[in-house]
What does this fold into?
Amino acid sequence: QKEVEQNSGPLSVPEGAIASLNCTYSDRGSQSFFWYRQYSGKSPELIMSIYSNGDKEDGRFTAQLNKASQYVSLLIRDSQPSDSATYLCASFGGSARQLTFGSGTQLTVLP
Amino acid sequence: SAVISQKPSRDICQRGTSLTIQCQVDSQVTMMFWYRQQPGQSLTLIATANQGSEATYESGFVIDKFPISRPNLTFSTLTVSNMSPEDSSIYLCSVDVVEGAFFGQGTRLTVV
It folds into this structure.
């Protein structure tokens, strides 16, 4: 069983729409959660971190964490073609000594 | 945040040879991490490099194949030894800071 699971996609949304990316994790002791954006041929770039239940907003990005449901999501409002990338969810804490990454969700924003 | 310089950015190597990848950080960090990302896949941790001690390898990775050096708190190298086409991948170094992990630019390795 994967420790961090993401909806595999690919996900396509029209420009201006809200993109919703989801992630679940199995280790209840996980304390920190991260979203990375990875453009093709580039290294992952940290875009959001969240540690407490609820929502955290940064510009067009909102991360949501529900520890009871072991669920993390990333919402991208007013999606732009430049948001087209693979988004990686990662967790840290509990029994893990290092970041645990999901398999990623490929997002395409259609102009 | 941290600025991480990794080189080479890409290389094409003959099977049976070795390649050493360098990673330089702009600040002192306790731990550095080496990942592999195979085409279309997520990141797999190879090993954790601590200054002054031997690296800690994850299951499936061994020191003879992926020797790591960590001579100081800002620098590390990963060597991919006796390469085969199955080693073709992107190799990434990373450091953890309070806000999350930051990655170098990656090394795209092709073994022919």
